[in-house]
Amino acid sequence: MRNCIITLLIVGFVSIWGCQPASQDKQETQRELKVAVAGPFTGNAAAFGEMIKRGAELREKEINDTGGINGMKLDLDFGDDAGTEREAKLVATRFATDRRILAVVGHFNSACSLAGKGIYADNGVVELSPGSTNVSVCEGSDWTFRNLYRDDFQGQFIAKYIKNILTEYQSVGVLFDNDDYGRGLRDAFVAEAEKIELNIVASEAYDRDNTDFKAQLTSIKAKNPDIIFISGLYGQAGLIVKQARESGITAQFFGADGVDSPDFLTIAGPAAEGTYLTTPFTFGGGGEEAARVAEAFETEFGVPPDTWAALTYDAMGMIAEAIEKTYNKDATLAENRKAIRDHLASLDTPEEGYRGITGLTYFDKNGDTVNKPAYVKIVKDGEFTTASQQMLNLE
């Protein structure tokens, strides 16, 4: 009997003691607000992913250093989609079904945002992309938003910039990545080029895993275009430019925002010199707050921020603002997630829009950003610089 009583006392003590951490965990969870960040942290777009991660981390640090959100700590959860649809679906499923996550910043690649879109919508959680530009990314879902332009705008812009600014170039060859981003941007560019009578003399596709572009370049070289437009990402673009110069091609190169990574300069080497590219944002065209963020970023990480770090920084700010204005600790997860979505959807006029370092962001009925401009950079002395001639509208 004595042994039984001792055993019962020990069991009771352990039970009471064991419940204490669970209670503390619950309280800790209530003091933390969890937001997910999805991007290509490995794979052939990993340079973008690293900047996305750092942009999110800097905004998280600034928020938490100033007291968090309504006194609660912001906590980020990162998910690596490796830039592939398969991994994006796995990441989206993990985030969407995680009972702690309030919203998702991501994905970067258009194919990944499209792959996750239905999963996020089915589970009622916001997907706010700081990088996906394919026309279809936001269409058909109330839960997907982005804070940069679409490829139909970008494609038209590039064609008009060549026609109106780079007037010495009359004929164009096109090299495009055979995925949602590359094809969609190519289509928009070609349609506008034909409309404004910019002569397309060649169009060649390549796969994301390509490293040898001799066949495509030989075909384009035979057509002798004045300028070559690359509709793809920095890794392949760097190899294309390098191999083109090695093969004797002297045409001017123009890349889209997928080329906007310091790794393009490393891969292409001296062949990158003189390349133009579009970008949704340039710190050279930003204001005082953008300069402050650039300085804080470089102090924190030892390298300057790029466009994607800036857009992610703003996306995190938009989500944080939505949580600050709508989060209710007594509401269900589904109710808090919907409140965040409703807040973003309410940013539908310039007056209601979010003012970040990349400019004013507000949305149309699809969740697409309205009226954000494109900028042009050029590689000069081995570095990206803001081109001397800008065209901040399509007129």
Which labels suit this protein?
395 residues, alpha/beta, Rossmann fold, 7-stranded mixed β-sheet, 5-stranded parallel β-sheet, 12 helices
What does this entry show, briefly?
By secondary structure, the protein is of the alpha/beta class. 46% of the residues lie in helices and 18% in strands.
**pLDDT averaged over residues:** 91
Number of helices: 12
Residue share in helix: 40-55%
Overall morphology: globular
Report on this model:
Helix 4 (about 110-125) links the parallel strand 3 and strand 4. The protein starts with a helix and ends in a 9-residue tail after the last strand. The model is unreliable at about 1-30 (pLDDT under 50). Helix 2 (about 45-65) packs across helix 11. The protein is built from twelve helices and 14 strands. It has two domains: about 30-150 and about 285-365, Rossmann fold; about 150-280 and about 375-385, 3-Layer(aba) Sandwich (Rossmann fold). The protein has about 400 residues and is α/β, with parallel strands linked by helices.
Please render the helix and strand layout as text.
Layout lengths: L1 H30 E8 L6 H20 L7 E8 L4 H12 L4 E5 L4 H14 L2 E4 L14 E3 L4 H14 L6 E7 L2 H16 L3 E8 L7 H10 L3 E5 L2 H13 L5 E4 L6 H7 L7 E4 L8 H14 L5 H20 L6 H13 L8 E3 L2 E3 L13 E6 L2 E4 L9
Parallel strand pairs: 1-2, 1-3, 3-4, 4-5, 6-7, 6-8, 8-9, 9-10
Antiparallel strand pairs: 10-13, 11-12, 13-14
Helix pairs in contact: 2-11, 3-4, 5-6, 8-9, 11-12
